[in-house]
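Sharing a chain and its predicted structure for anyone who wants a worked example. Both blocks are below, sequence first, tokens second.
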Amino acid sequence: MAKFCIAAGIVLAASVAMPAAQAASKPARSTGAPTNATGVSSYKQYTSSLGTLHLRVGTYVSHKYYWARVSSPGSTLNSDYNLHLIVSGPNGYKVIETVDINRTTYTAAYSIKSGYTYKACWSKKSSELTEKCLSTTA
């Protein structure tokens, strides 16, 4: 059974029914990793006049995680944009974390699992389309 909610015009799959073996292997969500991880670095980053978009990586409670971050946002990014972490993987698995950009902003983090793609993106609040993304596949 799937649960869906609309966040800033983007459909968010909060949970997707999967076989137990597959569900156990999906990436774990963490709200503590972005501010408490060790060995943190920007795996990828993009800087523009709007601010800097990061796909961050770090270790938290013995697991590696990716999350999205915006730093040094200008007034346009602060007022008109959302930050997203999009995690997709096998059998249609997809999760979208969306937060309103307000100064330096982080999404929740997801553990790194082989075969999953992680995208840090920003988009205008008025649009369903992501404007800029940084991605990697584990």
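Comments welcome. Helices lie at 20-24, 33-36, 75-80.
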